[in-house]
Design a protein that fits this description.
The chain contains three helices and no strands. The chain is mostly helical and 120 residues long. Helix 2 runs antiparallel to helix 3. The chain is elongated and about 65 Å long. 2% of the residues are buried.
Length: 120
């Protein structure tokens, strides 16, 4: 259970603030997160960045397809626009899945190399 204190400490330094956060996490029962090392956090940040870029690219494709659908003059153009959308989405999702799997597989060795003590 978390320890309760009646007073709040303030600090003017970034180091003091980060130490206070780590103490609060320890007090909350989460234990020390230092074993993870910075390499693991960097790998997670890279994965998050990749996902955000992928979603942005997919939204661009959605808008592009909506534009094409609105300008179709017959059923054949409509069908082609829909087919092109599905084909491109399949290709992009397949490629992105491969990237994320590779990044996930590379994450553990990267995090192990970037820290001295990893409890695995």
């Amino acid at each position: 259970m978390a320890k309760k204190t009646s007073e709040t400490q303030t600090t003017d330094s970034a180091t003091g603030a980060s130490e206070a956060v780590m103490r609060q996490l320890d007090d909350a029962g989460l234990g020390s997160l230092r074993w993870m090392g910075t390499a693991w956090f960097e790998a997670v940040a890279d994965m998050n960045s990749e996902v955000v870029s992928f979603v942005a690219d997919r939204i661009k494709e959605d808008v592009k397809t909506q534009h094409a659908l609105l300008h179709c003059s017959d059923a054949e153009e409509l069908q082609k626009a829909q087919f092109d959308f599905i084909e491109k989405a399949f290709e992009q999702y397949t490629a992105e899945t491969g990237k994320l799997i590779k990044m996930g597989m590379d994450m553990l060795p990267t995090s192990l190399a970037g820290t001295k003590h990893t409890p695995l």
